[in-house]
Amino acid sequence: MPNDNVLLVPYVTEKSSKLMEDNQFVFILMSDNNKVTVRNYFEKKFDVKVDSVNVLKKPSKTVNRGRITGKKREYKKVIIKVNSGSNKDKIEQLF
């Protein structure tokens, strides 16, 4: 069940740094929310106009460490495209 608390962690890679030039920001969504709640959160907290929100669900992977087998946690990756006329400086400070 989605809640009002959206926990986002900036996802910094070479590809995400390149996407920042096109006003797209990549985050890892740590809570169980959907596109609508993430869009409302960004428009309210950072005072920007969000064009689109893409959510990618990354499945868990099996890892082997010797004889011990485990799993990595699954997570959601969120790509947020901000309108070019919006003030995106507050979001850039997170990175």
Question: How is this structure best described in words?
Answer:
This protein is α+β, with helices and mostly antiparallel strands and 95 residues long. It has one domain (8-92): RRM (RNA recognition motif) domain (Alpha-Beta Plaits). It contains three helices and six strands; from the N terminus they run E-H-E-H-E-E-E-E-H. It has helices at residues 14-20, 35-45, 89-92, and strands at 8-10, 24-29, 50-58, 62-65, 68-71, 75-82. The longest helix is centred in the middle third of the chain and has 11 residues, at 35-45. The chain starts with 7 loop residues before the first strand and ends with a helix. The model has no long low-confidence stretch (mean pLDDT 83).
User: Percent range for helical residues?
Assistant: 10-25%
CATH topology: Alpha-Beta Plaits
**Quaternary arrangement of the chains shown?**
single chain
CATH class: Alpha Beta
Secondary-structure-based class equals alpha+beta
* Strands, total number: 6
- Give the termini separation: 29 Å
Q: Biggest sheet, in brief?
A: 4 strands, antiparallel
The sequence of SSEs as H and E is: EHEHEEEEH
Give me the number of helical elements. Answer: 3
- The whole-angstrom Rg is 15 Å
Give the averaged pLDDT, no decimals: 83
Give the overall form. Answer: elongated
Identify the strand order in the major beta sheet: 1-2-6-3
Number of structural domains: 1
User: Can you tell me the residue ranges where pLDDT is under 50 for at least 5 consecutive residues?
Assistant: none
* CATH homology superfamily: RRM (RNA recognition motif) domain
Strand content: 35-45%
Name given to the CATH architecture: 2-Layer Sandwich
